[in-house]
Amino acid sequence: MTRALGLLAVTVAAAGCFSVQYRARQARPGEPAIPAARVEAVTPWDSGYVPGTSTVAVVTPKGYDASNEDGDVNDYVRWSLRVDGGPGTEVVTMMWSPPSAPKCQGGHPVLELLLDRDKPKDSVLLDDALVHWERPFIVEGSRVVSGRFDQDPALLHQASVVDLTLREHDAAGEREVCVRVPVTGPGVTYWSTKRWSLGLRFGLRRAQAFSPGSTFSFGMSLGRWLGPVRLALEAGISGTSGNTPDKSAPSGTSLCFADPGPDCEGSSLGTFALEASGPFKRWGGTWGLGWSLGYETSFGVLYGLDLVTNKGTSRHAGAGGPRVGLRLFAATPDLEGVSPFSPTSAWAIELFAAAAQEYYGAANGHTLSYGLALTTF
Amino acid sequence: MWLEARNATRLMNAHFTIDDEPACGGHVPVQWVRVDRELHRHGPVDVGGLHGLVLYFPLDAWFPHNGYWRDTFVDVELEVEGKPRCVRTRLTRGASGEEAVGQ
Q1: What predicted TM-score, i.e. pTM, was given to this entire model?
Q2: Which of A1, A184, B6, B23 has the fewest CB atoms within 10 Å, measured from its CB?
Q3: Residue A77 to residue A25: CA distance in whole angstroms
Q4: Phi, psi (5° rounding) for residue A282?
Q5: Is residue A77 a contact partner of residue A148, using CB atoms and an 8 Å limit?
Q6: Which residues of A touch B2 (CB under 8 A)?
Q7: Which residues of B touch A (CB under 8 A)?
Q8: What is the pLDDT of residues A335-367, one digit of tens each?
Q9: What domains does chain A contain, in order, with CATH numbers?
């Protein structure tokens, strides 16, 4: 069972469902300029089995003997370079290192080399590239050559280079060329290819359009990144901690969400929202300011207390309207050079204001409201 | 597979091949190779003498349009005393998907 789950996780990760890839938006050419090479993409968390650990097999004169093990899963860094290979150009190896390392002689040696497919892949379960065991292998025309390396988070956050050792064949014979390609540092920027995003939202709101009391809310969202904007559908619940107002609880409406008193209405609400959000200012890579703009609706039941008869009452109400928010968010970048406006995962504190109009039910609350939310996306 | 090779023999590459793809020119190259008990993450590797080889291929080789119902082979690319050789082993035979390992 463990092995099956591990295989599924590795397969899905390999297909790019979980692993986040960054594509280069700005890249610097390698040196020497010919053969031309530049960084194309990086996957900072490229999960995969350590070769040979999931199926331990040996062949002896008596036959085949294999055992299936849980296997060791490891995270690698995958650098992908666009290489324009001429006739007879062969890839020998790669190294990933700081720029101070001697060319093609220092840093992390490549663990596996991969080459993009000759034909487009015909299943989402397949990787975009195939591991090439043979060394060297031919790269002709414009191809993407990738290398898996051991992880080095410190090196991802500073200037670094990938050295590509090529072998060229021409009339003069055979010669090796070391092409140094800047992969992080000045002049190299990245954009995340992340598309889908799950989010959570915990909020406190001062009032509703149909009731003056404060409410808590919890919502889940499914978002899709469109450039620097996350467009999301959110569904959730909202209300107060109890349905029946308590005469002995504090008066006023600010604490209705926690302990509804005689001035409150208990509430049980369902909420839906369509929201767009994105960053507009970043500092030092981690912290930033963002915005959100949405349209939200609430539907549900409100419970009151008739103070004369001391009997409970209930009514239905629904309202909807626009919501705007200002977010302080924290997002840890995976590597140096990621655009501040690139899709990302983050947590955020949001101050929001909302205006609402009743669809049905009595307008006993406030048309304008405000609140605080803790969100992740 | 069990390999009995001359002393100056190196394993250069291996491919999973279907139908009329050229020998040692299949579209699925080998990922890793275990020679006896030792795993090699890249080639070439000396295989002169008597050796058990385990060839690891990617998911592609499992997919029906690649494998079942077709002629499938594993082609092993060797260099014997400096000269290239391609050794083909048939895995399945034709539309029946009948196993034909070792033939």
Answers
A1: 0.86
A2: A1
A3: 19
A4: -130, 150
A5: yes
A6: 59-61
A7: 1-2, 12-14, 27-34, 36-37, 39-44, 50, 52-54, 56, 58-60, 63, 65, 77
A8: 999 999 999 999 999 999 999 998 998 878 899
A9: 2-192 (no CATH), 196-376 (2.40.160.20)
